[in-house]
């Protein structure tokens, strides 16, 4: 069990909702399972969010083969407000997202929840939305929008929608927030792994450089043919084993 404190919700990467809706689903493919309990949600600039993460130990990580993004079969989401903002703003964001999503995905289930965080379980004032799309091949893609001073509520949803569609249409099997997060599990896993991604992010390139310096694992990046700017990330993992488990 690990207790974590955050500096605040920053886009989707540090969101607890993202952790168990996207990150957890991808990590499950490596054999990793965990639970996230949110003690308190924190928002910039104050932060002070708190979560407890519980994970079961495993002997080794599985290799993965993620090259087929599939097609979208389900969309869920969470529009939220906290602090001095009324719940009707979250409801407005959820309704707008539902309308925009139905225009693009008319024949799949779409559920966008709207919530106001209780004052006792949140710190600071915040507003945002995270939308998650699941596909026929168990890939997950996200799009997020976070309010800041001077930004209209409608713009927050539009930002999330644009990011979601960019991730879905990238041709990859992970979204831009998850892309760099798969590098370490791939390096530690047993056997050969391959993941198709969209354009490499700066964080992914940094993660690849770090692994090169810290381990003997060598990644191979294969740039695929247009029109999509996709890449195949390949490696043979270390096969790191937990010696404390039989």
Descriptive account of the structure:
With 246 residues, the protein is α/β, with parallel strands linked by helices. The chain folds into 2 domains: 60-69 and 171-245, Translation Initiation Factor IF3 (2-Layer Sandwich); 72-169, RNA 3'-terminal phosphate cyclase, insert domain (Dihydrodipicolinate Reductase, domain 2, 2-Layer Sandwich). Helices cover 27% and strands 31% of the residues. It has 5 helices and 12 strands. The strands form 3 sheets. Strands 1-3-2-7 form a 4-stranded mixed beta sheet, covered by helices on one side. Strands 4-10-12-11 form a 4-stranded mixed beta sheet, with no helix packed on it. The protein has a 4-stranded mixed beta sheet with strand order 6-5-8-9, with helices on both faces. A hairpin with a 6-residue loop joins strand 2 and strand 3 (49-55). Helix 2 runs parallel beside helix 3. The chain is globular and about 50 Å long. Mean pLDDT is 89; it is low at 7-14. One of its GO terms (cellular component) is nucleus. This is RNA 3'-terminal phosphate cyclase. GO terms for molecular function: RNA-3'-phosphate cyclase activity. It comes from Paramuricea clavata. It holds the Pfam family RTC.
